[in-house]
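User: Okay, second chain of the day. Same drill as before: sequence in, structure tokens out.
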Amino acid sequence: MSFQKQIGQSLIWRGLYFITVLVMNVFLARYFEAGHAGWIFYLLNNFSLIVILAGLTMETSVNYYSAKRGIADNQLAWFSVVWTLFISVVVFIALWFYFGSYKNTTAITRTEYLFYATSYIAGIQLTNFFCSLFYANKNFFLPNFLMVILNLFVILIIPKQEGTENTNTSLIIKLYFAFFIVTGITLAVAFIIKTRSWKKIAIPVFFDLRLLLKYALVALAANVIFFLVYRVDYWFVKKYCTPQELGNYIQVSKLGQMLLIIPSIISSVVFPHIAGGVTGLAEMKDNIMRIGRLTTMLYLICFMMFALAGSWAFPFIFGPTFQLMYLPFLFLLPGIWALSNLYILSAYFGGINKVRVNVQGAGLGLLVILAGDYFFIPHYGMIAAAIVSTVGYFVNFIYSFVIFKQEHPVSFTEYWRINIKDFQWLKSIVRK
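Assistant: Same drill. Structure tokens below.
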């Protein structure tokens, strides 16, 4: 399957999946409003960090060695299941003891907290593993089709639930967190059946386990730093702003992440093509710059649309409690453009096993964001958080682009020189 055809297939099915994610996000935002929605999203943010640290981002190794055909898929599949079970037990035990000193909060019980955490962490870990395996095998239809069906189920449930005074204990939150583990198990079962891995239950041998761990540990540093680059501002906003401002800001960030859908989809195609040696580096360089030019045009259009309509569209879509989103989103949008192109470059460096470039670039960006958040958020709030994040994202992107430029004859101005061949390339994706 050609590079363009895979992008086309991925755009259709992963795009449909992300549309259902956006709809579900809108329903949740309107249901819980800014104050309570901010609490849920903040909790998810903390759990996401645990997924990265506890899981050692082992799914990146599984993706890499599956794409390279270095380790058999049935071994990687069963390793993913065993690893998830192990991590889930460890996290459950750790959080059981941790909750005893969890600010002595009465907003959530230990049982609820453990249910939310275990469901999310185990579910996301399985989802990451088996999406990686499906994508490494160039199958973008089945995992996203299954996730779309499950998302639609949640979307249909939300409007039928009556709210309660204590939304922390409401049925809808329990169903929402249970949805993550159901999704992960569904994908795991689907892959094992699809590849007939149930016929040969085995895990990688010791030598292969060492390879997986070695690659994962390098990627772990990158992913932890990336996570902090993208979300460390949440903690600053929570500390210095009101719960409603936190809900608005996290919603701004989540909407920005939705604009990263297309780059994320494309990067999931770029990585296995590079790692598996399917596409030459020179050809991939041309594809990366072409994608960058098309992305630039798309973001210019988006910026104009949101500048004109955002002030009334955000409260209309997410509810009247989200009226503070407009200015932070406009200041964050240029940074989202930088992240969009960084996604593709990071996939390229990961595919050629130069994860250190991603780590170094993210480290520089994180330093800028930490310093800026520390000095400016206490005085200027959400607006400062958005501006500082944009600056940090640009620092990260520019560093990766400079390294990319050292390997290929490209210039930054190429991002603005869209031409007819770019549209012809885009048309070939649509036709395929």
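The radius of gyration is 21 Å.

User: Thanks, on to the next one.
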